[in-house]
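FORM 7B: Structural annotation worksheet

SECTION A. Query
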Amino acid sequence: MIKLLKINKARKMDSVVEIIDEVEKVTKDLHPQVDENLPPIKLFISVDQLAELKKSDADRELHAKMFLTPKEESLEVDTAVFNEFKVKFDKAFSKLGNENKCCPYCKREYASAPAEVKQCLGCGKGFFKTKRPQDGQTVLVREEQRELMSLQWKNIKKAELIERINLNALEKVRQRMEQRDAKRYSIYNAHFTLVKQHTAKALVSGRFRLYSSFIYYMAEHDRYKKDFATALMYYFYLYYMQLNGASNSIVFGDKVSVNVRIIKRIANLLNMINTPATECAEFFEYAIKKTTAFELENLPYSITDAYAHLVQAFKEEDRRKNPRKIEKKIKGNLFKQTLFHAF
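SECTION B. Predicted structure
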């Protein structure tokens, strides 16, 4: 687990030497210690684990109730922040590019535009040719939208499925669903239906880690069908459960780390809407209170603690990608703040 960075409140200092010493003291904490010995929680489950849910165990269910919140005591949550993020995702996933073989800046027409245009013959700006995820159309896209286009594709990658699941059986479920509802369904819709059937059983039987894996598959389904705000909500909930050490032994507090795939999923979604983790406090709290099945006070980490851990995890990732840039910026800010308090 990542040790949270703690910076003491600045105090008034009497000399330049003290100022420099204080800056160096705080700078030593720029790289929190990561315990590499903590294994990440495994996300994927196999069909063998589903068989365990068929076994009835009254003792397990009684013990599990100690952690579960009664339905009548579900938490009241304001949906405003969810709606705000939904609007952000709708805007970020809007169609990019020009389908008319025209420069996306000056509209200069190209009879056959190459895959990469460093400088438009009309305006001198760069663009590239690609397919867009919303409709599969080949379009010319502005160079500054390259990363956003990449994130749009990343965030609709096919959803993960339970390992070794029988695809023929899923296909039959899909067909029955279509006959019943007179609607078109994908194999992923059928998989989601199967997951929902097992989720409650995993929860009430105290198999909390298995339950968290089902939540992952549900988040994957929502992400794949482009319900990004709901997917992010479930990924946050999953982060919270994994940080708290969800176990199949009807307890929390196992010495494990959050699976890196969850952090990547969260990062891709937040990057698409250009929103840093530091601006997600309200949505993180909403996500836990909206989805949790547990008595929060019985878990090792509070919502506030878990969110602080999430923010620190993202800061650590930023430092790994841009170590010199981040350290220089933070050290400079600390030096300015120390000077301010000293004089």
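SECTION C. Observations
DSSP finds 13 helices and three strands in the chain. Confidence is low (pLDDT under 50) at residues 1-36, 338-343.

SECTION D. Sign-off
Analyst initials: ____
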